C-alpha cells in the first residue's frame, strides 16, 4: 500500500513540472535557419543585391566561434559598402537627377598654388611688370598760371600791407552827415569785399568820394582785414 501511494505522488510531481524549451532551436520564437535566411534577404535588399537562395545551415554552424562570426559580419559590411555607390539615384519622373559638380568654373583659383603655378611663372610675371612700367607717365610740375582778371584792386594784398585795427583812424574824413551817407551807400553792395574793391578803385584809402569810410580807418563798409592777416601768420 505504501509503495502504491509513493508511486502516485511521483506521477503527480512529474505532471506539474514545466517543460524546458530547446534553447538550440533558434532565436526568439523562430527557427535559427529561418532567421538567417531573413537576415540575408534584408541585407541584400539594403545593399541592392539579388536575394541569395536559402541554404541549409548545418548543426556545426550554430556553435561557431566568436572569431568566425566577426569575420562573417565584416565580410557582409564590406559587400554592402562596395555596392552602395553602384546603386543609381531613383527620383520621381518630374524631378531631375542631381548632377555632381566636378569643377567650380566661377570661382577664382588665385589661392590654389598648383593652378597658379600651371598658369603663370616667374618669367611671365616679370614680363608683365616690365610692360606695366613702359606705360607709366611721369607728369612734370609746371609753373602756376597767371592770375586772370580786370587788374583791379587786390583787397588781399591791401590787407597784408596794412597793420592798423578796424576802427582806428588813419585818414582824415571831413564832412557832415557822414553816418547817414555811409549806411545808404554801403547798402548798395552785396558784401563788404565788393565795397572795399570799389573803395580802393575810387581813390581810397586816402580819398573817400563814395562815403564808405566815415571813421577813416581805410576799410569801407566795416570790411575786416584780419582774416587775411591770420593766413599769412
Automatic annotation (TrEMBL):
Start and end residues of each stretch annotated as Disordered: 189-233
Basic and acidic residues: compositionally biased ranges: 194-212
Name assigned to this protein: Excalibur calcium-binding domain protein
Organism: Roseovarius albus
Phylogenetic lineage: Bacteria, Pseudomonadati, Pseudomonadota, Alphaproteobacteria, Rhodobacterales
Amino acid at each position: 500500500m505504501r509503495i502504491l501511494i509513493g508511486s502516485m505522488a511521483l506521477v503527480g510531481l512529474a505532471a506539474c513540472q514545466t517543460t524546458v524549451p530547446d534553447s538550440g532551436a533558434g532565436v526568439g520564437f523562430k527557427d535559427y535557419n529561418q532567421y538567417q535566411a531573413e537576415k540575408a534577404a534584408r541585407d541584400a535588399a539594403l545593399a541592392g543585391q539579388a536575394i541569395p537562395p536559402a541554404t541549409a545551415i548545418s548543426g556545426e554552424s550554430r556553435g561557431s566561434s566568436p572569431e568566425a562570426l566577426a569575420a562573417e559580419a565584416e565580410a557582409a559590411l564590406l559587400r554592402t559598402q562596395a555596392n552602395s555607390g553602384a546603386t543609381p539615384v531613383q527620383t520621381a519622373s518630374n524631378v531631375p537627377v542631381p548632377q555632381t559638380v566636378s569643377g567650380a568654373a566661377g570661382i577664382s583659383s588665385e589661392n590654389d598654388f598648383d593652378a597658379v603655378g600651371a598658369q603663370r611663372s616667374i618669367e611671365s610675371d616679370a614680363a608683365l611688370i616690365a610692360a606695366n612700367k613702359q606705360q607709366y607717365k611721369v607728369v612734370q610740375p609746371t609753373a602756376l598760371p597767371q592770375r586772370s582778371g580786370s587788374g583791379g584792386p587786390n583787397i588781399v594784398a591791401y590787407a597784408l600791407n596794412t597793420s592798423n585795427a578796424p576802427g582806428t583812424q588813419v585818414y582824415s574824413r571831413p564832412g557832415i552827415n557822414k553816418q547817414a551817407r555811409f549806411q545808404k551807400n554801403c547798402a548798395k553792395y552785396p558784401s563788404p569785399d565788393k565795397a572795399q574793391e570799389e573803395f580802393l578803385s575810387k581813390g581810397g584809402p586816402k580819398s573817400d568820394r563814395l562815403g564808405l569810410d566815415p571813421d577813416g580807418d581805410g576799410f569801407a563798409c566795416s570790411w575786416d582785414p584780419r582774416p587775411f592777416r591770420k593766413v599769412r601768420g
